[in-house]
Amino acid sequence: MLDWLNGLFDSVFAGGAFLIIGVIGAVLLLISLLLDGIFDFFDFGDGPLSLTTIAAFTTLFGFTAFGLVGAGASTPVAAALGALAGVIGGAFAWWLARLMRKAESTTAVTSAELKGLEAVVVLEIPGATSYGEIALSLYGERVSLTASAANRIARGERVTIVDTLTPTAVRVEKLDDEMKRED
């Protein structure tokens, strides 16, 4: 172990370029993960040329080659094995990024999905001239919407959505009123 460490320090000059490449890659990787979107003009999409994938490749290539030079490998062998480690690490980063993007969900709701759903008034709806607020559970998440109604509806009353006015505003009727109409 001590021989490897001594070889590593002796190789700082021989493998200095690899060390610099590894450090630059690590800094880019940290920036791309922590400050997502700051280097979008360098990003070539979600494919193998994304900034995260390139940074992962560069980091693993540089540090692996630097470590191999320190262990006594020749520069060409260290570069080849570093490139192999970089390709494997870059492919893993690409796969992991794609997996995370697939796991992302959207809570966007269409107008057609809202009509007929039941909700609870959380902020009194004063009547035709003013708005209140309703809440409902949709896809396991609480959704709040601005709501209007023809008549006053008190907080805590159950309502049904009868129309969508905007993506965040709906027209509702008291659940009892709608049931009376169906009778």
Q: How would you characterize the overall build of this protein?
A:
With 183 residues, the protein is of the alpha+beta class. The protein is 49% helix and 20% strand. The protein has 6 helices and 5 strands; from the N terminus they run H-H-H-H-H-E-E-E-E-E-H. The chain has helices at 2-10, 16-34, 51-70, 75-103, 111-114, 175-182; strands at residues 118-123, 132-138, 141-148, 158-166, 169-174. Helix 1 packs across helix 3 (51-70). The longest helix is centred in the middle third of the chain and has 29 residues, at 75-103.
Quick description:
This protein is an alpha+beta fold and 183 residues long. Helices cover 49% and strands 20% of the residues. It is built from 6 helices and 5 strands; from the N terminus they run αααααβββββα.
- Biggest sheet strand order reads 1-2-3-5-4
What value does the Rg take, in angstroms? 29 Å
What is the SS-derived class?
alpha+beta
H/E element sequence: HHHHHEEEEEH
Tell how many strands the DSSP assignment holds: 5
- As residue ranges, the low-confidence spans are none
Mean pLDDT: 80
What is the overall number of helices?
A: 6
C-alpha geometry: rod-shaped
